[in-house]
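Support request, priority: normal
Reporter: lab tech (M.K.)
Component: structure prediction queue

Hi team, I submitted a job for ABC transporter domain-containing protein from Pseudoalteromonas ulvae yesterday, and the status page still shows it as pending. I've pasted the exact input below so you can check whether something in the sequence is tripping the parser. The sequence length should be 286 residues. Please let me know if I need to resubmit or if it's stuck on your end.
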Amino acid sequence: MLTMTNINKTYPDGTCALNNISLNLPTGMVGLLGPNGAGKSSLMRTLACLQAPDSGSITFDDCNILQHPDALRAQLGYLPQYFGVYPNMSCQALLVHIAILKGLRKADYQPQIERLLALTNLTHVANKKVVNFSGGMRQRFGIAQALLGNPKLIIMDEPTAGLDPMERESLNNLLVDISKRRLVLLSTHIVEDVENLCHHVAIINKGCVIESGDVQTLLAPLHNKIWRTDVNPDRVSPSHILSKSYRYGQSAYRIYGDKQPNTDAVLVPATLQDKYFFELNKQGAL
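Reply from support: The job had stalled in the queue. We restarted it manually and it finished. Here are the results:
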């Protein structure tokens, strides 16, 4: 549904945010992974028609959105990483305001707003000012406004930021449900969110795409090459140590290699996090 070809963006201070980005993204949940500063938010702003690239082309459903940005805006839901609100408007009033800006009719937006308030667990605070919301409540409001108008393309930049575990699970269930009929682009540095939700992923670093495709296809080269051990693998090259984590205070290492790194190591299924660290290791980003 969404195709980007040779997208480049350099800011006035000389920062190269996007470097020859080319991606073909299908319907469903698609993850955009990368460390902080990788260019994820710059790409999201470009896709949302908030900034123009220096060069390249973007099409959505065969429509050139750089030439016809209003055609995309009419079917776009966007949750930026940071957003402000009018200080004197209630949650419901602000949703009505946004619905009108999106060109929705009253007969259409009223039932939508009621449903979205319920979905995001904001019905009980519908008449309270959004400016006084907690971080998690404000994030849920942002999700509600992004879903107004039944958009075909939904872009969410770090949507789970500030959400507690129950709110996060509720949002994940909602995103999986709505992605069956549209493209939901989820930008995050939280690998677990993408692994749980997305069937397709693009990994970017320093403004470049370093891997893109179906998750299972991306994991295939790591099959039978990921080892887990609780023992410090001091004889293993640091570049092969993908991660060190803790569970109940006990350390655990995940190692890439063709051979068993030590007698305590066991083969484990490769995860998207393994792939993420593997690719960033190759880039020298870790």
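Residues 2-75+152-216 form a domain with the Rossmann fold fold (CATH 3.40.50.300). The chain has a mean pLDDT of 90. Let us know if anything else looks off. Ticket resolved.
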